[in-house]
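Hey,
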Amino acid sequence: MKEPVLILSDLHLGHKASSIDDVAALEPLLRGAATLVLNGDTWQELAREFREDGRRLWQDLRALCQRLSIEIVALPGNHDPGQRDADYVTLAAGKIIVMHGDTVFPEVAPWSRMALRKKTELRAILSSHPQDTVEQRFALAKKVSQCLIPNYYIHSKNIFARIWDAVTPPGRAWHMITSWLTMVRETRKFARRYFPDAAIMVCGHFHFCGVWDKQLPAVINTGSFMPPGSAYWTEWKEQTLSVGLVGKKSGLWQRGTTLAVWKFDPQHADG
């Protein structure tokens, strides 16, 4: 994998509530990268009403990266489980794991309205599917994602409409808050089971960006390009992992303030 490696997640291309209407606005953010790791939920593959626009924007992004000589490594998310160059990426000889994050909870998205409506079907899938290996866990996530395809998507970027969507049906907000409160603990538990050598886990999925590095493995969540949340960029270059804010200026996305940096021994760099 050529460096620098830029990691972004949860672009949700095609979704009417996504902050990205034109991928050309991403050029300043992408420029300088040799490899772009798209860490899941890049486009709305499963959403029938958004699929056409999502596929068009996804093709536009691929064309932009080709013009900039950037290699794309696309990882699957719960909204695009069929988009798979690999299930996850390792850097620094396995010390850094990059994965979408939908595998952290076996239920994938416990806060989703379909998880609340399809409890019986979901329990049947979880009880019948093996979870002994990381490959089985990723296969389970894809199966659950197909089960949880919603029959309705919010179209508005308005913050009040987004909040109302988050609290309906009753109980959804509680599951969302609980997932946010436990996602770091569960990510670490997942890493210790399936990636015991990992020092850093880079995930998206939860639309809740942050850096938690007071204990190992450190957890980076890169947020999303869906309001009202915000997004982080992450870069791997010269045995150094950096993470920072994604901002928008004059209609163009770009890298903002660097928030954290980790340096690795050169002997641990991926070839």
